[in-house]
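I hope you will forgive my troubling you with a question about protein structure. The matter concerns a single protein, recorded as an amino acid sequence and a row of backbone structure tokens. Please examine both parts with care and let me know of anything in them that strikes you as inconsistent. Thank you for your consideration; the sequence and its tokens are set out here:
***
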Amino acid sequence: MVTLIVATTMDPASIGPASALLAMPGWHPGPNLQGIPSFVNGEVRLMKHENSIIREDYLDKRWEEGTGEVVDEVIFLSRHTAVSNRPALTIHPIGVPHLKDDEVPPAGGKPGWAAPPNPRIGPWLRILKKIAESQNLTPEFEITLEATHHGPLVHAPTMFLEIGSTEEYWKRQDAAQAIALLVWEGLGLGGGGDVGNWKRNCDRKIVLLGLGGGHYAPRHMDIVLKEGVWVGHLLSGYTLPMEDPNQSKGAKSTDGIGGTWKQAIKVSFEATKSAFPGGEVIAHLDHKSFKSWQKNAITGFLAEQNIKVGKPNDF
């Protein structure tokens, strides 16, 4: 079982951390997969391709077919863009579970799909915050989760590590070094134990499924920053499209409410459950981001699906 790290030479926020990581001890050339060079360090494999990071699909399966090694998890190194242009270091799961079959995903993936979220997301966010603080990157850089979005298509538990939000910051060597150090420490490449390994988790088995709020999931972030919290998919308001011409008038029935919100919740719940075998996936709602009829509909649907709704202290 190997960890696959993916970088692209066309993105300075991807190749920068990859180069910083490869400058650390223990790496040697690995197999060339379909023209893509790789590097090996223990059970970690790093690939450097030349295409869009969100368009190279099924790299986990392609690696397995080409090498015979089973991919346990995938970590993508990428840039982040934001309208605010604010410098940021972000972590997020991937998928577009809210899209209809006839919609074309604007940034990779497949409609109605979500990759299993990498269980390391929560623990690594907390490490990243500590690294950024120790390297004096904060408060200039915001350290944050992002909601589930974009491709590429993969089957293994996956996360993106990103540097944002403009070219000036994508090229920042100190930001690249922080991401590289996160991977180095998080995977235990320096000789210590790896961080966020669900299979060795002997403590609480509760996993947060975030529903509602903005793209940077501030209400969910407040919980995930606590030690010991595991995080699965995070669905912001825009990935829970709800169509209710009658505004439901407080009714709890979900029958008349259109949109793909049920699909998005179900797909994300199942993907999260698959990534945390033996865990209890509990929904956390950003209550203030919903209108009353939306909250009633969502809680009603969660009850129908036997998905528990938790309060902050439950995590």
Summary: The helical segments are 12-22, 59-67, 121-134, 167-170, 173-186, 218-224, 261-275, 292-304. The first strand starts at residue 2 and ends at 8. The CA atoms of residues 33 and 65 lie 10 Å apart.
